[in-house]
Specification:
It is built from 20 helices and 21 strands. It is of the alpha+beta class and 608 residues long. The chain folds into three domains: 206 residues, Rossmann fold, CATH 3.40.50; 202 residues; 81 residues. Strands 2-1-3-6-7-9-8 form a seven-stranded mixed β-sheet. Strands 10, 11, 12, 13, 14 and 15 form a six-stranded antiparallel β-sheet that branches. Strand 1, helix 1 and strand 2 form a beta-alpha-beta unit.
Length: 608
């Protein structure tokens, strides 16, 4: 079956050059490209479109256009293409032949006059401009619109999102309220006191306002599913991958092969080897609860949640180092996905592709000659480029995730998808099992010791995040000397805990945090949270130990940097004077995290 096409046409003019047009072209391909890679749609772009190119593309893709986008100079009667103008009436006729066309986006100056003819010929929806528009605003508006579409927002919601983003970026004074009009071939009158962009809907196709980009079809990986599949049949294979990084595990594998040990007995060993941020979700998947012991919807959801958290951890490790490298070198422009990561809303977070972003940042590392803190990340970048088993497993898990989030999953396929998801999750975690050679540790206290004229020592009281038990943090009896100090209360990734002095470490703050540190609670227990999204200007975290339904809902398993706590403050000694009264102090325990994010945004987004 042919996939729908998003066609992007751009044309510049040597005599009236649009400086930002190429950047708009690059951004839209960056936003829409992953959909092409995942085979949800096909995206084609002409950066220097001529009349001949346009006609040839209509002939080549006849009947398959879903979205037609034009960026460049235009007017009421034509699009100003390379080496000639394309007349609006002719383009309208070509577009009317596209039976599956949902939207025409004319991102050029004063294209509003073309709307009437398009509506008369049955075009379902048009975004056009009523006046001349600034080059950079045109780029930003289209980028925000397509980002929202990729996040599975409808055309209507995406349009309003782009308008709100424009108001935020440029202020309300230059951007009046948005315009959505229903048209049925009638005379169009425009109010000059509106935003330059309008969304016009054909009266015969009002349902197009609710149209969303299609989900990627789920392409099965298992050529021969197991005859009698039971949950957790595939996961023990992860131990085989781990043995490549810990030879002592080969003895356990030999015992399984000889029949001395059941293969399911290795599952707790696998979890103990992984960082708790990943192990917590995997532990739920292998639990003996009724919902996890059968191939049903809850198990499928938990499989996908395990994948999401693992993907987040991988990306947060790399972005944490990227921030450090960028600060040192002041080079390497941030990929567009990094910008999106730091401004995710709750809806877009459900569709944000962490692994695709990992690959994009990986390219920046390669281009700048930066060595990843986790050296095997280089192999991961290669695996994504070569599109082998790891890449295919990621695509399958991502496509199931997308359909679960959009509510469009065929429930009759759930039992088969449980097996497919477990197989792909096994490949995914097996490929990144090099993480067993690294430890995540929580820093609880830092002590500074120094003798006169001697080197300062930074002693860190720490505990390893043990996947065997999420409830307690086993603090080491003696503080560890570090070559340099880190932040108190931070979660670190270290590659060597055997030596007394730790010289290499990577701070994962503000992406991964221990909540108990900020609330000054138990010094022995853990309460690990991962960054999720932004809401009302505050950064929201989700508990790594919560289940799928709890991870995506607003409840006690979420915390926000905007949280305030009122504390009554009294004088320690009451000597009876009248003004010795108690007062209420407002504490914001997570304010430091927001400050870290704001600094990161300034340094990465603005620098990019």
């Amino acid at each position: 079956m042919s996939k729908p096409i998003i066609y992007l046409a751009f044309a510049n003019d040597e005599n009236a050059h649009l400086a930002v047009l190429k950047e708009e072209s690059r951004q839209l391909m960056s936003i829409l490209g992953p959909l092409h890679d995942k085979e949800a749609v096909e995206v084609y772009r002409d950066e220097s479109t001529s009349v001949h190119d346009l006609i040839e593309s209509f002939e080549r893709f006849d009947g398959r256009f879903a979205i037609f986008h034009y960026g460049g100079h235009a007017g009421g009667s034509s699009l100003h293409l390379e080496a000639g103008h394309a007349h609006a009436n002719g383009i309208a006729e070509l577009l009317s032949r596209q039976k599956d066309l949902q939207l025409v986006f004319l991102n050029g100056c004063s294209t509003y006059a073309q709307v009437e003819r398009l509506m008369q010929l049955g075009i379902k929806a048009v975004i056009a401009t009523s006046v001349a528009i600034a080059d950079i605003m045109a780029k930003d508006f289209s980028s925000w619109f397509y980002r929202a579409l990729v996040a599975k927002k409808s055309i209507k919601s995406a349009f309003y999102f782009a308008v709100s983003a424009l108001h935020t970026q440029y202020g309300d004074s230059s951007c009046k309220p948005a315009l959505i009009e229903y048209r049925g071939g009638l005379k169009l009158d425009i109010d000059a006191d509106i935003i330059p962009w309008g969304l016009y809907i054909n009266e015969q196709h009002k349902e197009t306002l609710n149209w969303r980009l299609p989900d990627r079809p789920i392409q099965r990986l298992l050529p021969h599913p197991l005859d009698n599949y039971s949950p957790n049949d595939y996961l023990p294979k992860i131990l085989g991958a781990m043995a490549n990084y810990d030879p002592s595990l080969k003895r356990i594998i030999d015992e399984v092969k000889s029949g001395k040990m059941d293969k399911r007995e290795v599952l707790p060993i696998i979890i103990q080897k992984l960082p708790w941020t990943i192990g917590a979700q995997l532990q739920k998947l292998i639990s003996r609860s009724e919902s996890m012991r059968k191939a049903g919807l809850e198990r499928l959801q938990q499989s996908i949640q395990t994948y999401i958290v693992t993907a987040q951890v991988l990306l947060y490790i790399l972005v944490s180092q990227y921030w450090e490298e960028q600060r040192k070198s002041q080079s390497g422009n941030a990929p567009q996905q990094v910008n999106e990561l730091l401004i995710l809303n709750e809806n877009s977070a459900q569709f944000f592709d962490y692994i695709d972003t990992l690959g994009k940042i990986g390219k920046v590392f390669i281009d700048n000659g930066w060595q990843p803190f986790v050296s095997k990340f280089s192999d991961l970048f290669t695996a994504l480029t070569e599109k082998g088993p790891f890449y295919k497993a990621y695509l399958l898990l991502e496509s199931i995730r997308e359909q679960l989030a959009s509510g469009r999953l065929n429930t009759s396929s759930v039992p088969q998808l449980c097996e497919e998801a477990e197989n792909s999750l096994t490949i995914f975690i097996g490929t990144i099992s090099f993480l067993i050679n690294y430890k995540m540790v929580a820093i609880r206290d830092i002590f500074v010791t120094s003798s006169r004229y001697q080197t300062v020592n930074y002693l860190h009281k720490l505990g390893s995040l043990n996947a065997a038990d999420s409830a307690y943090l086993t603090l080491e009896s003696d503080p560890r000397p570090f070559k340099n100090h880190t932040e108190s209360g931070a979660i670190l990734l270290v590659d060597d805990l055997d030596h007394e002095k730790i010289s290499r470490f990577l701070s994962l703050s503000p992406f991964i945090i221990d909540n108990n540190v900020f609330l000054d609670k138990s010094r022995e227990s853990l309460d690990i949270y991962l960054y999720s999204h932004v809401e009302n200007g505050e950064y929201v975290y989700k508990n790594v130990n919560s289940q799928f339904q709890k991870m995506i809902s607003q409840n006690a398993y979420s915390i926000s940097t905007g949280y305030e706590e009122k504390v009554e403050v009294k004088d320690e000694v009451d000597i009876g004077w009248e003004f010795n009264e108690s007062s209420v102090k407002i504490l914001r325990p997570y304010a430091l995290l927001k400050t870290q994010f704001e600094i990161m945004k300034k340094e990465l987004i603005n620098a990019g």
